[in-house]
What we know:
Elements lengths: L1 H4 L7 H15 L3 H28 L1 H8 L9 H18 L2 H28 L6 H4 L6 H16 L7 H32 L13 H18 L5 H5 L1 H32 L11 H20 L7 H26 L8
Amino acid sequence: MDAIRTLHPAYFALVMATGIVSIAAHLLAMPPLAFALLAVNVVAFPALWLLTAIRIARFPREVLADVTDHQRGVGFFTAVAATSVFGSQIMILLGAWTAAMALWVMTLLLWIVLVYTVFTALTVKQAKPTLDKGISGGWLVAVVATESVSTLGSLLAPALGAGREPFLFASLAFWLAGGMLYIWLISLIFYRYTFFQFSPSDLMPPYWINMGAMAISTLAGTLLLANGGGSPLLHRIEPFTLGLTLFFWATATWWIPMLLILGFWRHVTRRFPLTYSPLYWGAVFPLGMYTVCTYRLASVAGAPFLIWIPRVGVFVALAAWALTFAGLLRALLRPGAPRPA
Length: 341
């Protein structure tokens, strides 16, 4: 029961990472792996919601403390993104449109409740940390959550026929809102990185969301472009959408060498121990998302020379997922080991 009491709000990143790596495996013609990861999510998604419901019922004070915490509060946004990614996963692998639509509605409702609840709580609380203690790459999960409403919406839209135009307009609005939110937050994060003292412990695994938020923004843009032919609005702004999508992809790509260098500095130069944490799922997700978004971009942008990136990236993402999942199993099964939270 103590494991439920201390359950990290960001644990839904497990579903995010598993879902997007499954989609990557599907796109790169690895169906057995794609469906195996789908099976993992079929168990993990309801299990995490069950544990979360028990935690809310049994430990409301701890949940409220998390909502108002500058580090843990933003972890709730993983529930939004996980719901969307799981919906995308069953839509792409199974063609389960009705179930995916139900998950999109759930995604939208969660986004409305959690985004405004968490940001309001962090705004009105009296005691606040300084910038260097309060912000991290994990804040960009808010961008991922916002873009996830757009991605699943764009996947579902083609089946709506004449009613898809309002749906696509909503997807466009969420895509643009997520892009602006990234600009706001990354400015603060980059300022914190470069103008405050930085220790290895500050470089938490969600720093990879710096890249992942731009990767899912790229994916959302490619899905809007794919819908452009049947939408008067999207057709009219195709050059703008393509340009902004390429801007997002270039930004995501810029982050990769920087994050690898910082990871080398953290674990090799400064010898910070590499032990399992649920936050590492927030590092696996961007690898899978970059693979998928580049695959889609190569198609819609007429850039087949990019296809080698997802062909390599899918193996990197699968390896990262396997290592993190092994860490989870080891943490759960090792006798006397503290349960991950």
